[in-house]
From TrEMBL, chains A, B:
Residues 146-224 form the HTH crp-type domain. GO terms for molecular function: DNA binding. SMART domains: cNMP (SM00100), HTH_CRP (SM00419). This is CRP-like cAMP-binding protein. CDD domains: CAP_ED.
DNA sequence: CGGCCGCTTGAATACCGTCAATTATAGTGG
DNA sequence: CCACTATAATTGACGGTATTCAAGCGGCCG
């Protein structure tokens, strides 16, 4: 069940089979299923437990008084919503399902047990939330400095790398590809652009051969080219096994 | 020395005099002074210790290949740079001084001692970094959804409340005011706007009586009016003493 | 097969950026 | 104390990028 999370955390550190068993167990205690566009929780809610995305896509978002909506993060399998939120009394944003979703609800107590029991897992969770923070900072930069095509290209680069890090890309045959179950409207909410302009931007990207997007599959003929137009630098994703020093324990 | 940090953390939880003494001590171990526009650290650096801003303003920022620059956070006295960064191998962004700065360098060991020694302080630090994350998300929303005047107004509201929470505002006489040692160019880098347009936006705000900005002092004649044009909702700052339940110890 | 949601297109316009020049302010040294 | 210089703020003109509005198209699901 916790396959994607384990795979992601292993980008940072190796995990013992004990660690993995613990994660598997935590992820299978209670699984909740949501339909597309349902909310996992809403702004103002009291946080109760940690949610782990097992399957499907979700997004964090904020809504302004007048209805404008900003997606502040796209969540894919292996992502944790609000690892630490139990410190705060109220959620300051919402998380909603983009596709039908299956989510593990992990009680905060279980999380505390895990982090107290294993320094490796504790650090791995820590790393995970630091990366989330770094992604948020990169989004600020993306929205503030990059223009339309760079912005969308950047998001595609990020998604590709994040999906690859949890084993959700196809690199067979010629070009790498992945499933993108997101509408152009949602892309607009994530990039701070209008739907119309997202559409035109996507078209330009297609014309320039940067992406092929048919149905729900995106193919990237030339990743380097895409990264170039995006001014993409992957360092903020910290996919560098920085925590290797921590696993003295087991092979 | 650690006055502002203590004051800020007390927005979350009450601290014992022991807690405060520990913080004071940590903040006075080693103090570094920087001139305006010097960097505390740069993207690519290896994080060595935690930096606590004692005096002056700083900013986190990222620079694109072609020189475009985005400020992703404004840092004021009491703010910690990279509480958790020692998990990561390389910094993915820079932090630079806006004004002359005095910064406490706190060794990671000291931080670990503190957090292991006091559950209250540990949670307070946690709260602090959750709030930083929340601010980053709000900035994403700000850049993505709000137009120029709303965006600048929002930043002013945020700064006012954050400064007030560390005791750096003046509410005497009639209207609240604070020192803003930031150039319009830096404001532009923070809001993703051009300098020229920041200038024009500020002028409109002045004409509409939303702010008075003379020299380095900003006065807010009508905070509610400013919040209204900003579509500002303070919940993301979590200034609600959420951690009061934690201080059973001392009066 | 019809309806709905998402995608696409065009035209008009608003917002904001760029360039370039001018004025104001602050910091520095004689 | 004042001239000098650098930095910051301001202004105008122009153009480009992105938004809005409105309408048409197309595929997928019931």
């Amino acid at each position: 069940m916790a396959f994607h999370l384990i795979r992601k955390l292993e980008q940072f550190t190796r995990l013992s089979s004990d660690d993995k068993r613990i994660l598997e167990q935590a992820a299978s205690l209670k699984v909740r299923r949501l339909g597309s566009r349902e909310d996992i929780f809403r702004e103002g809610d009291k946080p109760r437990h940690i949610n782990l995305i097992l399957d499907g896509w979700a997004c964090r978002y904020k809504v302004l008084e007048d209805g404008r909506r900003q997606i502040t993060a796209l969540l894919i399998p292996g992502d944790l919503c609000d690892v630490h939120m139990f410190i705060l009394t109220r959620m300051d944003h919402s998380v909603g399902a983009i596709t039908p979703l299956s989510v593990a609800e992990i009680p905060t107590d279980t999380i505390l047990e895990i982090t107290h029991g294993s320094a490796r897992l504790s650090r791995a969770f820590w790393w995970n939330s630091l990366v989330e923070e770094a992604i948020a900072r990169e989004w600020v930069t993306n929205l503030g400095q990059r223009e339309a095509i760079e912005r969308v290209a950047h998001l595609f680069c990020e998604l590709f790398l994040r999906l690859r890090s949890v084993g959700m890309t196809n690199s067979q045959a010629s070009c790498p590809s992945f499933e993108l179950p997101v509408t152009q409207e949602q892309l607009a909410d994530a990039t701070g652009m209008s739907t119309v302009h997202v559409n035109r931007t996507i078209q330009e990207m297609r014309e320039r051969g940067l992406i092929v997007w048919k149905g729900k599959t995106v193919t990237i003929p030339d990743l380097e080219a895409l990264q170039d137009v995006a001014l993409f630098n992957a360092n903020y994703l910290h996919l560098d096994h920085a925590g290797q020093a921590y696993d003295a324990n087991e092979p």
